[in-house]
Amino acid sequence: MTVFKPLILALTLMMAGGGVAQADDAEFRACLDDLTSVARARGIPGELADQVLGELEFQPRVIELDRAQPEFQQTFAGYLRARVTRERIERGRALLAQHRQLLDELTREYGVPGHYLVALWGMESNFGRYTGRMPVLDSVATLACDPRRSEFFRDELMAALRLVERESLTPAAMLGSWAGAMGQTQFMPSSYYAHAVDGDGDGQIDLWHSLADALASGANYLQSLGWNSGERWGREVSVSPDFAFEKTGIEQARSLAEWAELGVRRADGGALPLADMSGRLLLPMGHGGPAFLVYDNFDVILDWNRSTLYAIAVGYLADRIVGAGPLRAELPERDTTIATAEIAELQRRLAAAGYRPGEADGILGPATQAALREFQRDSGLIADGYPDERTRAALQTGAGAAESVEPASG
């Protein structure tokens, strides 16, 4: 059995402005030797593994980017403004019309409407305009040889080698993101190998240069993730003034009939559809911002990219491409960001007060939001799971003192 030993790159992280130390390069070569043995053990031809892995180079910039943590959490308003732009909506509409025949064929075969494929195409690579410039094999090998996520990227490297063999790809031409995402749909090597399909029928799957391959692969991937044909991703909604905000969150599913009884309506004030479906209510900016009722297809988009903001943006962009109007809820002109360090401190305070926010990683994820809702409910605050100023102030003074804080008006 081959024992894989990822190398430790501590010195490299201290040399952002300089070259790779000779010792680090030697460790990288030793790691590549181990990876070559792993490739052979997994049935990859030895000649291919020797040739491709033997020519790879360590990428210190990849380690820097992997370690980089944002100083501030990007807000929903900032995220949406940057990605669902007027130019992107208009270009999406034009491309939907231009490629209507292909997209209709993909909808018939895979059950995924064309405007979702166009929205994902726009989000991933700005409709093929930017697919990345980093050498994928070098980048993935660098991460496979780093101990932080070595197992994950080792598997991705093996998938990339299989792609070179199956699709006759030239390693030098395999350019993508620093983490190894490739082509117009930004597939990781394992997704490329397992889910990409030959959309243009030329016998090769090329996600960089063949739009038919890229869109067909996106449709196939969504179908494999469980896309429900005939259902939408979700919708913007409005809630009654006395709505029980503690019932929100990605983990709390209810039928549409139940949501209607709780005071949820369409954003235009109309009643929710009479459909045998369940949904979850998300408040990405708290009770003062827009509300979204999301369905099963939202989870499919989340499986593509685990960011809630990304999934909402894809669904919203898809709606705008087919003629929907802008959000009914107003987004603030100036959006206040929250420092990542402040979120981490908030998580530590929640844990110290007996709640369960998960790891203090500075990320406002589902576990942290659920813990916030519990804290807010216990403290007499609006329990929307959003760390507004009043909630942060209550946590600063301690859970016990939070009871003296006046509840925010709804």
From TrEMBL:
Pfam families (alphabetical): PG_binding_1, SLT_2
BP terms from Gene Ontology: peptidoglycan catabolic process
Signal recorded as keyword: yes
Gene3D superfamilies noted in UniProt: 1.10.530.10, Bacterial muramidase, PGBD-like superfamily/PGBD
Top-level taxon of origin: Bacteria
Record PANTHER family: LYTIC MUREIN TRANSGLYCOSYLASE, MEMBRANE-BOUND LYTIC MUREIN TRANSGLYCOSYLASE B
Domain Transglycosylase SLT: from-to ranges: 28-319
Cleavable signal peptide: 1-23
Keywords, sorted A to Z: Signal
CDD domains noted in UniProt: Slt35-like
Molecular function GO labels: peptidoglycan lytic transglycosylase activity
The keyword Signal appears for this protein: yes
Peptidoglycan binding-like domain span: 342-395
InterPro entries registered for this protein in UniProt: Lysozyme-like_dom_sf, MltB-like, MltB_2, Peptidoglycan-bd-like, PGBD-like_sf, PGBDSf, SLT_2
Protein name: Lytic murein transglycosylase
